[in-house]
Amino acid sequence: MRSMRRGTKEMDLILMRFAAARLNGMDAAALDAYDALLAENDQDLYQWVSGQAEPPGRHAPLIGEIRTLIGMV
Predict the structure, then answer these.
(1) Which of 30, 47, 56, 57 allows an S-S link to 26, with CB 3.0 to 4.6 Å?
(2) Residue 45: which domain range?
(3) How many CB atoms lie within 10 A of CB 35?
(4) Is residue 47 domain-resident?
(5) Which residue pairs from 17-20 have beta carbons closer than 8 angstroms and sit at least 24 positions apart in sequence?
(6) Which pTM value belongs to this model?
């Protein structure tokens, strides 16, 4: 649900798609990483996903997965 009700429509769409594709296959560590990513604000998330800004190292692997899934690589 937190992937769908972000506050900005862009991040709603991006994270809904990512969650639908990957959430069921995530292990506990990946779910923890995703939960930490969801705690970030949408403006930062969008800049990281769109490549306008580099994500912090702790989020870089997950942002890379999201970029790949939505075709922003």
Answers:
(1) 30
(2) 9-70
(3) 10
(4) yes
(5) 17/69, 17/70, 18/65, 18/66, 18/69, 18/70
(6) 0.87
